[in-house]
Design a protein that fits this description.
Layout lengths: L2 H15 L3 E6 L5 E3 L2 E2 L6 H7 L7 E4 L8 E5 L4 H7 L4 H7 L5 E4 L3 H9 L4 E4 L5 H15 L11 E4 L1 H9 L3 H24 L6 H14 L4 E2 L4 E4 L20 E6 L1 E3 L2 E2 L2 E6 L6 H19 L9 H17 L6 H7 L25 E2 L2 E2 L7 E4 L2 E4 L13 E4 L2 E5 L4 E3 L8 H10 L5
Parallel strand pairs: 1-7, 5-6, 7-8
Antiparallel strand pairs: 1-4, 2-3, 4-5, 9-12, 10-11, 11-14, 12-13, 15-16, 17-20, 18-19, 20-21
Helix pairs in contact: 5-6, 8-9, 8-13, 10-11, 11-12
């Protein structure tokens, strides 16, 4: 995204927090992987959303109404030797010229300069609780301002959670964000289709993961948005299984939960399909029940409906279906009230999606489920998980884990499924898998 996108966001944010306030954001730290080696760096989403600045060891300060400049950035100075070893970095000049900072200072000078920036600001917006070490720095800066009270200098008298304003902004996606989300969805959809086509009994879960990662990177998504789940057979009953180490067996289902990150925006898709390309009778019965629940939930994604309506729709379909199949006994309405379905469906039907796979934004406002609005993006992902030791059901159902997940944009008139390029009907899946490698 170009610099004007971030400038526009900052202007909106500065307007919302008020002329007497100040906001401070710290970059994500660089995280060690092992001795002398770090994980690939990924900037904090909030920090990137307002600055576009991709480097660690940086702090952004936002000062509404300040005549000298409203966006101050502390960052690393340019180091020629460091550039030889690790690549180019912005430095102070680049922070101003490339990223639009009104002022840029060396990060080493932050303790000296920050108290002056906080002076005579009434409220301090920050992310307390995220990083205890940075919280201590904030308090030290505030205390330094307080020590000048006899000179008539006022320190911020109120701390405000930065999420209150910023996360509401992030919840409604701009056109540039939707473009990135659509591309992430497109790349991820291609990866899921590839996984279906190459899958064969005897392969290992990690080999399927490699095919997915290959497709991500081949199309410009340098990393997954979250650890990829490739769960064959019983492993699909572990909701966040990421070991991806076991062989894929004849007669089992394979659950893949995988999404690419493209230009800081995430996709999140789950599909479940037979390793050998053909559903058994029991697998098909449960799968079609989950699909029916997902379609009912997607139907509820429209402006004016509240957040929980898709979940309620999915639960209703799943509970009725479980009774019909003999996995639950009783009246569906009573079973729903007792949450009896949670033996087989223990998670929610979706979450916000954006820069984070579990994206920013409240689900309730004043203790009431919030209404869906155009520009919101969410996942819809019902499932059924029947463990190996689930003695209350017939053996034919045991060891089956199924989830179907799509990314859905709320539009002015309803919704758009961003990930509908991945087959999910039984006949579509079996048809694609029967073609196999010939189309790759």
């Amino acid at each position: 995204m170009n610099r004007t996108v971030f400038e526009r966001r900052r202007a909106r944010y500065l307007e919302k927090i008020g002329s007497d306030d100040v906001a401070i954001l710290a970059s994500a730290p660089s995280t060690p992987r092992n001795r002398d080696v770090h994980f690939p760096y990924r900037q904090d989403s909030d920090f990137y959303y307002l600055t576009g600045f991709p480097e660690p060891d940086s702090v952004a300060v936002f000062l509404p109404g300040r005549k000298k400049g409203q966006f101050v950035l502390f960052c690393r100075e340019f180091d020629r030797d460091k550039a030889i070893w690790e690549g180019n970095h912005a430095g102070l000049k680049g922070a101003r010229k490339q990223y639009g900072a009104d002022e840029a200072h060396p990060i080493e000078e932050i303790d000296r300069i920050m108290p002056d920036l906080l002076a005579d600001r009434r409220r301090l917006h920050c992310g307390l609780g995220r990083r205890p070490e940075f919280d201590r720095q904030l308090l030290e800066w505030v205390n330094k301002v307080k020590s000048r009270s006899r000179a008539g200098v006022q320190a911020p008298e109120e701390f405000v959670d930065m999420d209150r304003v910023l996360h509401e902004m992030r919840l409604i996606k701009e056109s540039e964000e939707l473009k990135a989300l659509r591309r992430a969805a497109e790349i991820s959809s291609q990866a899921h289709r590839r996984a279906m086509q190459v899958c064969r009994p005897g392969m290992y879960e990690y080999q399927i993961e490699a095919e997915i990662q290959h497709e991500f990177m081949r199309h410009g998504a340098r990393s997954p948005a979250y650890p990829t789940i490739v769960a064959g057979g019983l492993n699909a009953c572990v909701l966040h299984y990421t070991e991806n180490k076991d062989p894929l067996r004849e007669g089992d289902l394979l659950l893949i939960d995988a999404g690419a990150e493209y230009e800081y925006y995430a996709a999140d898709i789950t599909r479940t399909f037979p390793v050998n390309g053909k559903f058994t009778s029991a697998q098909k019965s449960l799968y079609e029940l989950v699909l029916e629940a997902q379609l009912a939930a997607i139907e509820k994604v429209r402006p004016g409906n509240h957040w929980n309506e898709p979940h309620e729709a999915a639960v209703k379909v799943l509970t009725k279906g479980l009774v019909k199949l003999g996995l639950l006994e009783g009246r569906p309405s009573r079973l729903i009230k007792k949450e009896a379905y949670k033996d087989f469906y223990m998670h929610r039907t979706g979450h916000w999606l954006g820069m984070d796979v579990h994206d920013a934004g409240d689900y309730k406002i004043d203790d009431k489920w919030r209404e869906l609005q155009p520009g919101m993006v969410l996942t819809v992902e019902p499932g059924l998980y029947i463990g190996k030791h689930c003695k209350q059901v017939s053996k034919r159902w045991r060891g089956i884990g199924i989830r179907i997940e799509d990314d859905v944009l709320v539009t002015e008139t309803g919704c758009e499924v961003l990930t509908d390029a991945v087959p999910k009907r039984v006949d579509e899946i079996e048809s694609l898998m029967s073609v196999g490698n010939d189309t790759l």
